[in-house]
Amino acid sequence: MKSPLSRVITIERFILDQQELHPEATGDLSNLLYDIALAAKIINSHIRMAGLADILGSAGLINVQGEVVQKLDAFANATMKHALLHTGRVCLVGSEEDEHPVPTPPEYGSGKYVVLYDPLDGSANIDVNVSIGTIFSVHKRLSPEGTPGTLADCLQNGRTQVAAGYVLYGSSTMMVYSTAQGVHGFTYDPNIGEFLLSHPNITTPRVGRYYSVNESHFPGWAPEVQALVKKYKGFDGGYEAKNSRYIGSLVADFHRNLIAGGVFCYPADSKSPRGKLRLLYECAPLALICEQAGGYASDGCRPVLDIEPEQLHQRSALYIGSEDDVRLAERMVSGLCE
Ligand code: AFP
C-alpha cells in the first residue's frame, strides 16, 4: 500500500525541487522563501487566536499612510522583520508600516536581496474576522553586496522581481508564490505545521465571472471608469454581466478572482487621484502572480510591471485579473492617461 507521504509535498521540498532547475542557484532565495513561510506560520498562529488573545484593536499608532496601526499589523510587521533581517540573505526591507526602508543590522551581514511587503493587508477587516493577508515582493539588490542597502535597491520595476507572493488567512491559510516559474499554492496543515502543495500551476480564465470594486467610490470616478463598471454589470448589452464580489481585503479579492476568474479594480478617483493601493508591495507582487497565471495587471494605461517606481510608498490605480476583462478596462479608461 502506498504511504500517504508519497502524495505530500511540503513547500520546502517544492522550493528545493524548483531550485534544482537552476544549477547556478546558491540556495539564498530558497531559504528566503522558507523565512517568509516561517513568518507566515507565526502570524497565522496569532490571527487564529485573535478573538481570544489581547491582539485585536488599535496599537495606538498612525502609520506613514495615515492609517491607524492595528495590534496585529504591528505584530506581523515585527515578525516579518525578525524573519528577514537576521539571516544575512537580505540587505534591506521596505514595509507598508515603516516610513523608510529598514536595513539589516551590520552584525548579520548585508545580503543580496531586498524584500518589500505589506505585513497585514486588509487590516480594517481584522476585528470583524474577515480574510486578511500578507503580500511580499523580492528583488536582487542593485548596490554592491556587503554594503548597506539603499532606497534605490527598493525602487525597481515589477519585471525585476525574482519572487513574489501572498499569504491568505482565510477559511484555510494559503501561501501562493511565483519565482517566474508559474504560480503555486500551498495550504497550511495545522496538524503537522506545514504548508503542503495543494494548487500547483495555478492559471486564471481569460474572461472572469466576477467584478470586484468598491462602488461607494462611484461618484468620485471619471465617466470612463463609471462606464467600465456599468459594462461589467452588463448595462450596455453586448457584454455578459458579471457577478459582484468585494471583501475589502485586496489579497482575498485577488485570490478569489485568480482561482474562479474575475477582475479587481481600484481606480483613481477624486479622493485618491493616483489610486489608493501601493505599487511596490501591493500592486507589483500581485501583478507578477497574475501574469504568471495567464492574467494581466494594468494601471489603466500600461502594465503594472513596467511602472518605474519613484517613492517607497507610491500609489497606483489597479485593474487586475482575467486578461480580456483588464484589457477592456485599459481600452475604456486609456483616455484618462497623461
Ligand atoms: P490595508 O488595510 O492593508 O491598508 O489594506 C486595505 C486596502 O489597501 C486593500 O486591502 C483593499 O483592497 C483596499 O484597501 C480597501 O479600500 P476601500 O476600503 O477603499 O475599499
Describe the main β-sheet briefly. 8 strands, mixed
Strand tally = 17
Shape: globular
Radius of gyration: 20 Å
Bound molecules: 1,6-di-O-phosphono-alpha-D-fructofuranose
Ends apart, CA distance between termini? 64 Å
Strand order of the largest sheet: 4-3-5-6-7-8-9-10
Structure explained in plain terms:
The model has no long low-confidence stretch (mean pLDDT 94). An eight-stranded mixed beta sheet has the order 4-3-5-6-7-8-9-10, sandwiched between helices. A five-stranded mixed beta sheet has the order 12-11-13-17-15, sandwiched between helices. A two-stranded antiparallel ribbon has the order 1-2. Helix 1 packs antiparallel against helix 2 (28-48) and helix 5 runs antiparallel to helix 8. The protein is globular. The protein contains eight helices and 17 strands. By secondary structure, it is of the alpha+beta class. 28% of the residues lie in helices and 24% in strands. The chain has helices at 11-19, 28-48, 71-85, 151-154, 223-232, 250-260, 279-292, 323-333; strands at residues 58-62, 68-70, 90-95, 102-103, 113-121, 132-140, 161-169, 173-178, 184-189, 194-199, 210-212, 243-244, 262-266, 277-278, 296-298, 315-316, 318-321. The longest helix is centred in the N-terminal third of the chain and has 21 residues, at 28-48. The structure holds 1,6-di-O-phosphono-alpha-D-fructofuranose (AFP). 1,6-di-O-phosphono-alpha-D-fructofuranose (AFP) is lined by residues 67, 118, 121-124, 214, 248-250, 276-277.
